[in-house]
Amino acid sequence: MPRTAVASARVELVEAPLRRPFITAQGRRERTVNAAITLRLRGGAVGYGEASTSIARKRLTPAALLGALQKMALRARGRDVRGWRALVDDAWTRHGALSPAVAAFEAALLSALAAEAGTGLASWLGGALERVETDLTISASDDEESTRAAAAEAAAAGFRVLKIKVGGRLAEDMARVGAVRRAAPDARLLLDGNQGFSPASALRFLEAALKTGAPVDLFEQPTPKCDLAGLAFVAKRSPVPVAADESAASPSDAARALEAGVSALNVKLAKSGITRGLEIAALAKAAGTPLMIGCMAETARGLAASVHLALGAGCFKWCDLDSDLLLAEDARARRLAGWTRRGRFASLA
Q1: Which of 12, 244, 271, 294 could potentially form a cystine with 249 if both were Cys, beta carbons 3.0 to 4.6 Å apart?
Q2: Does residue 90 sit within a domain?
Q3: Pairing between strand 131-133 and 264-268?
Q4: Residues 325, 300 contacting (CB under 8 angstroms)
């Protein structure tokens, strides 16, 4: 049996509390409970992947993700990870509805293969950058003081881009944008609608925000994921790029979104995995459309695959890789991450 065969696999739940309640247009959470897989090859190399639960996608429960990873782990034992494509394709066929689990499985396979080859996943994926600058997310809290405090803390830590969760209620959304601007007046802003707007209300909110002088660089998924025509309607009338997130979960979704007329795409490994994420990036590059890379509620170690992809591919205009900053993880857990956080920068050194 070759060194690249899977010798063992461990599947487990990992938990971490959030530093502040995380609120979007889809709901609220105060901790994350994710499912993780660790693969060990016969040669000793180890690969890790983590599947995040979701506020919006209710079927992505810890139990469902754990069960899917357990089945993938059983099928992987004894298999040569040099045949990872067949393993990943089979996982998508069997468990595609639980995409974070498939993405975690793929991340574990590829990180183990890269380690066995004596390199890191970022280098294996192209090694384009030494570090990336990430934003920091401000939750959709109705408490202006909480919003102000979070934004002030981010500004003090040197973050130059803040992503604000908004939810389709004009007065509350405008108050949140105002609180962030007062606390972090030099920050550029990304607005994340999390599917909470109609096309008309999205444009009203964006117009109101821009009239105040808010330095908005991107409006992410304002309309429901199934309303691609509505998303394109907003994109064609917006003075800032409008990104498809939930509407671009796969390469075929992304192709339809580009054809409809969206002006940016967000790649999330929890939706697409690494190789499908690269396919989405290739479609965007061919169309001349800018890219964002995002995350869900992965721990620092779980976020590693996205950090490696951002560094390896080097093609993302906006990096929303901040889940580790939103969680209250202990130092030991962070040491296992395999990458380094220095304020707004993520790197391997």
Answers
A1: 271
A2: yes
A3: unpaired
A4: no
The Cα 144–Cα 330 span in angstroms is: 29
Cβ atoms of 47 and 115 closer than 8 Å: yes
Residue 181 DSSP symbol: H
Q: Last residue of a domain, which of 89, 119, 149? A: 119
In the numeric block, the tokens 């560094």 are attached to: 311
| CA distance readout (Å), 115 to 38, 65, 213, 334, 349 | 13, 25, 48, 19, 16
Say yes or no: 109 and 163 in one domain: no
Q: Is the pLDDT of residue 25 over 70?
A: no
pLDDT digits 0-9 by tens, 139-172: 988 889 999 999 999 999 999 999 999 988 999 9
In a domain, 1, yes or no: no
Residue 299 near residue 307 (C-beta atoms within 8 A): no
Same domain, 69 and 89: yes
Match 């609180």 to its residue by tokens: 179
- Answer yes or no: do 44 and 189 share one domain: no
Quote the domain boundaries for residue 200: 123-347
278: in domain: yes
Q: Is the overall model pTM greater than 0.90, yes or no? A: yes
- Cα separation, 166 vs 28, whole angstroms: 13
- One domain for residues 86 and 198: no
What's the number of domains the chain is made of? 2
Which ranges of 17-163 does DSSP label H, i.e. alpha helix? 62-76, 84-95, 99-116, 121-124, 144-156
Whether 130 and 115 share a structural domain: no
Q: pLDDT tens for residues 302-346?
A: 999 999 999 999 999 999 999 999 999 887 888 889 999 999 999
